[in-house]
Amino acid sequence: MSQPTLTQQVRRLEDLIGVRLFIRSTRRVELTPAGNAFLPHSREILHKLGEAILNAKLEAGGLSPGGEELIIGAISPATSRLLPLVLSRFRGRYPSTRLVIKEVDSIELLRGIERGDFHVGLMRPPSNSNLVRLRHLISERFVAVIPRQSILAKKPALRLSDFVGHSVFALKRFDLSSFETVWEQLSGAGLLTESGIAVSDTTTALALVTAGVGITFLPEWVSAVANDSVVTRLVEDMSVEISMAVGWNPDSPVPGILPFVEYATLAAQSMLSA
Questions:
Q1: Which one of 41, 109, 162, 183 has the fewest beta carbons within 10 angstroms of its own beta carbon?
Q2: In order of start, what are the domains of the chain with their CATH numbers?
Q3: Crossing angle between the packed helical segments 257-273 and 82-93, to the nearest 10 degrees
Q4: pLDDT > 90 in the chain, percent
Q5: How far is CA 141 from CA 9, 36, 39, 170, in A?
Q6: Do the Cβ atoms of 129 and 176 come closer than 8 Å?
Q7: CA 83, 89, 91 angle in degrees (round to 5)?
């Protein structure tokens, strides 16, 4: 939508409601108190509308799961927030479908969908998905994970150059391009000196930082599970992002797959607007 069209639509909305929702100036746009009061209700309305449209499409397409089994795989980052949102919507609409849920890593999940061991999954999208169809859901930035006692934990802003001279380690997850990019950025900044640390999973990396062994860089979701011994901080000149996707085999006849995919899309949109 172009800026003039957007401005016109906002004015129509304000005229319809009878109050100003935005304060506009040449430098910024911000919500009025009335706008702040209106925002959460409008989001809720849009979410309900989106779900109503989705349900209508699913019914029109004959995709109505019954009492069959749906085997769902999910990586650890998805189980804390995204998966519960998806399951809540799916279960409310299709209560008779038997759900089998397993936590696995992305590579195992990808191969499992190809073999038919899983019907659908929430994963990091690999560079080569072979038989598996993927739909992007959300992206998140990498953050520095720092022991609380470090002087860097107290700095108001951080750049990669601030980490020179500190013990820094990175995950060797080159099956995922985002981790490879992080490794390349840290190496290019001269931060990956020989530390004697080799780790390939997020949980272990977080445990090492908690123990004060060093500093690492992980996807932003770890902020929700990290304990008080560490702080997580965005780094101004590191803009690497990592994606979450829903994957499935388009040739599978299981009727619960496509509704799950659509509800995953809806849940991701609700997270982005929250």
A1: 41
A2: 3-59 (1.10.10.10), 66-138+243-273 (3.40.190.10), 140-241 (3.40.190.10)
A3: 130
A4: 45
A5: 32, 27, 26, 15
A6: no
A7: 90
Evaluate the CA torsion angle 156, 204, 224, 74 in order and state its sign. positive
Token pair belonging to 124:
């990091």
Q: Are 224 and 162 in contact (CB under 8 A)?
A: no
Q: DSSP state, 27?
A: S
How far apart (Å, rounded) are the C-alpha atoms in residues 239 and 270? 23
Give first-to-last CA distance, the chain, whole Å: 22
**Using 50, 70 and 90 to split pLDDT, how confident is the model at 54?**
low
For 203-212, write each residue's pLDDT tens digit.
Answer: 889 999 999 9
**Other CB atoms within 10 Å distance of the CB of residue 85:** 18
